């Protein structure tokens, strides 16, 4: 295998943190400092063009970005008052989906499945840390790789 430079000249350098690539490698989400607050920056990897995120500007700081396969969904943690909240922005519809957790559960990190059908959250509750999986299939449409066929495990026709 041959290694090559992954970042074109258009990608902003500096102090980026917590990078997340979409499954197809087209989009890069990372955290940057802007105006004294941590915000998520979403860019097309090849051109470096910054893509707008409609619902996230007024809910900062941000942490733990995670992208679905084609980058339709961006999951991350946002500050909501004195509490962190997990949210998913659907870039195709412009809707934001907050994930409501039981009281006393504070999300620390998250990871969105590439198809957008589940999410893993690291939660702190009463000083105890655990990871919990949540099914999003009733909330989000699948964001799958082109040509991917879902199989029920039986023989294919």
Structure characterization notes:
- With 157 residues, this protein is mainly beta.
- It is built from no helices and eleven strands.
- The strands form three sheets. It has a four-stranded antiparallel beta sheet, with no helix packed on it.
- A hairpin with a 2-residue loop joins strand 6 (73-80) and strand 7.
Order of helices and strands: EEEEEEEEEEE
> What topology, given as strand order, has the largest sheet?
1-2-3-4
- What overall geometry do the principal axes of the alpha carbons give? globular
Number of helices: 0
How would a crystallographer describe the biggest sheet? 4 strands, antiparallel
The termini sit apart by: 36 Å
Strand content: over 45%
Rounded to an integer in angstroms, the radius of gyration calculated over CA atoms is: 17 Å
SS class:
mainly beta
